Amino acid sequence: MEKQELLYEGKAKKVYTTQDPKLLIVAYKDDATAFNGQKKGTIHGKGAINNRMTNLLMDRLEREGIPTHLVEELSGRETLVKKVSIIPVEVIVRNIAAGSFSKRYGVEEGVVFDAPTLEFSYKNDDLGDPLLNDDHALALGLASREELALIRKYSLNVNRLLREIWGACGITLVDFKVEFGRLEDGTIVLADEISPDTCRLWNSKTLERMDKDRFRRDLGGVEEAYVQVMNRLTGGL
Ligand code: TMP
Ligand code: ASP
Fold it and tell me: Domain count of the chain?
């Protein structure tokens, strides 16, 4: 399968059409942005790591009963995926307070929740991805009540499985963001990526940040953290 036309270019990935109208090719870039694109930079080698890591994790999730868009990895940076229409709802699952949760509610980073918390935000850069509850998502016609319930169930299962996978590598899954899409027949599948760009991953022993927060907060050692997370995953899977 080969790339035809560039269909869409996002902040971290490009999406191309293929000869098959039901399949697309995703190409991962080294570009990194934060704060809704206000901060821009490059994380060398990130594209290849995020491609591989997303595919390893999606393959594992698929085998555990979570439908995904993954078809097959084509090369270091490129993957063949099923064409979906992305539901413009970002699903964030949190196990430990951090980031915007800590800021919004005045809770110190590192406070462990009794149970995972799930939040939705409207995937809309112009509006700054505002928080959404189920009623807002319904009012905006983003998804049906049944779809939201399924998305919630899949996301909590993804959290349970990812916590196990990362835990086995000595990494604590603090929080993450996922996106879902609809296939032509309406089936909901996990789409987008699962990587240190979209997860907060802390070294379980030292609590050191091993994810994109190193870039967001200018902590240094960004590339090294991505490489280390990848090495731990391939050693531990
Ligand atoms: P937050 O605490 O900034 O809301 O981020 C929660 C999680 O979502 C964190 O793991 C990083 C991820 N995330 C994205 O993948 N994309 C985004 O645009 C943002 C803001 C966060
Ligand atoms: N990727 C997001 C952006 O550039 C934000 C983030 O990951 O912090 O807006």
Answer: 2
